[in-house]
Amino acid sequence: MAQLEWSDALVLDLDLMDDTHREFVDLLAVVDHADDAQLLPAWERLVEHTEQHFGQEDAWMASTRFASGNCHSMQHRVVLQVMREGAALARQGDEKVLRVMASELALWFPQHAQSMDAALALHLRRVGLDPATGVVHAPQALPGELIHGCGGATCSDASSLGAVQSVQAALA
Q1: Quick count: other Cβ atoms within 10 Å of Cβ 13?
Q2: Among 81, 46, 75, which Cα is nearest to 58's?
Q3: Whole-model pTM?
Q4: Does residue 128 carry a pLDDT above 90?
Q5: Which end of the chain is more exposed for a tag (fewer CB within 10 A), N or C?
Q6: Residues whose CB is less than 8 angstroms from the CB of residue 56 and which lie 6 or more positions away in sequence, other chains included
Q7: What long-range pairs does 152-160 form, CB within 8 A, spacing at least 24?
Q8: Could you give the count of Cα atoms lying within 13 Å of 18 in the half-sphere of its Cβ?
Q9: Whole-angstrom Cα distance, residue 57 to residue 145?
Q10: Which residues does residue 129 pair with via DSSP β-bridges, in sequence order?
Q11: Residue 133 is inside which H or E element, if any?
Q12: Residue 158: which pLDDT band, with cuts at 50, 70 and 90?
């Protein structure tokens, strides 16, 4: 199974985001090392953290003019849906699915962090967002129109569907 360890490659130079990402990596490691009796509770803690984690990023995007339907937010919704479905299957006795999902998350997360989250962190620094308070210190730097896609130069609404399908395939 693929395991994920925190490394400098995941650092995005936005302290609150980096702290949240480090916690995600740590909770995923707890899932990886959990025995069968502790697997579902560990997974549920990871899901709870991920709901808050993605919710915070989605709130930052909303407050700094990312479109609500961008592919970054869409990936968040899809990944959470799949994680919740995994928990439901585990509650019905299929705990093996959580080990497979944990392995797939370990592969997916670095790509997500180093692309979509990196673009978001850059944007948040550009507009001077204080992640802890939500205050934008450089409102003149906010884009005039909503940012579509993921916020990266090579991402667009047209590629959103492909990105989401990749996440679904990886976590299914």
Answers
A1: 10
A2: 75
A3: 0.84
A4: yes
A5: N
A6: 16, 20, 131
A7: 152/115, 152/116, 152/119, 155/71, 155/116, 155/119, 157/69, 157/70, 157/71, 159/71, 160/69, 160/70, 160/71, 160/74
A8: 11
A9: 19
A10: 136
A11: none
A12: very low
